[in-house]
């Protein structure tokens, strides 16, 4: 019989992968699940899918997320804190967290398209290279997330829209969350730039909301931008706000999150680097602040 209990430490993961790869599927089958949202209808997820797109930097430190052992230890710390509902990640990260026993009773959202590598000539090609909707359903994950960058000058955008629409339809068919992360984007020299002015975000919201044959299970993942009340009036879809690469004073970031969470369509936060790599290094404290903002200070 294949063992399904958690491994003792990050250092044991490679040996399990080499000797007992079937243990991963067995652990997914045995994982204890929970409702997508609790009684308050709100959610705090930790994002850990950046490395698969070649994004390793935090606040200008280009290799901040290069160590997998360090990243996993930060993620486990975050997931153990009260009020953290779950995690978004690629299969490699979620399988590691699963083996570590960190996903029991947590929401697990699979990142689906990581093909648009940061800085590549094909960065706007957001093709699906990680989870499929069928695999998300088979493994018992709780949903799938898709980056959907819309560049009006790039004919390849229509393929991204079609792939995202297909994923939304397939996930809805399984009764699973489809989390769409839309941006209006352009290429400026070697860089892809996401337009974060309110009008651009409103346009991206309307495009994203119309993807797929059903919107019943669609959520949005959106940036915190100016005039967010007007932006959020563009949709009735439940929305999680992203953290992005943190800049400036964390207190200013927390204040912006607190204001945004008062808006009806905003149902929580999905934050990676700002919580996993706070300036003072205290992951637990940063996560506790975010959990208090999302669920209230009485979170347990």
Structural commentary:
With 300 residues, the protein is α/β, with parallel strands linked by helices. The protein contains 11 helices and 9 strands. It has helices at residues 13-19, 22-30, 68-79, 91-99, 133-139, 157-173, 198-209, 228-232, 250-260, 273-276, 283-295; strands at residues 43-48, 86-89, 107-111, 143-150, 177-188, 191-194, 218-223, 239-242, 266-271. The protein has an 8-stranded parallel beta barrel, surrounded by 6 helices. Strand 7, helix 8 (228-232) and strand 8 form a beta-alpha-beta unit. The protein is globular, with a radius of gyration of 18 Å.
Features:
single chain; 300 residues; alpha/beta; 8-stranded parallel barrel; 9 strands
Largest sheet: 8 strands, parallel, barrel
Rg over CA atoms: 18 Å
Distinct helical segment count: 11
Main-sheet strand order equals 1-2-3-4-5-7-8-9
Could you state the order of secondary-structure elements as H and E? HHEHEHEHEHEEHEHEHEHH
Helix-residue proportion: 25-40%
Describe the structure concisely for a colleague:
By secondary structure, the chain is of the alpha/beta class. The chain contains eleven helices and nine strands. Helix 9 links the parallel strand 8 and strand 9.
Q: How do the strands and helices of this protein lay out in sequence?
A:
Elements (H helix, E strand, L loop, with lengths): L12 H7 L2 H9 L12 E6 L19 H12 L6 E4 L1 H9 L7 E5 L21 H7 L3 E8 L6 H17 L3 E12 L2 E4 L3 H12 L8 E6 L4 H5 L6 E4 L7 H11 L5 E6 L1 H4 L6 H13 L5
Parallel strand pairs: 1-2, 1-9, 2-3, 3-4, 4-5, 5-7, 7-8, 8-9
Antiparallel strand pairs: 5-6
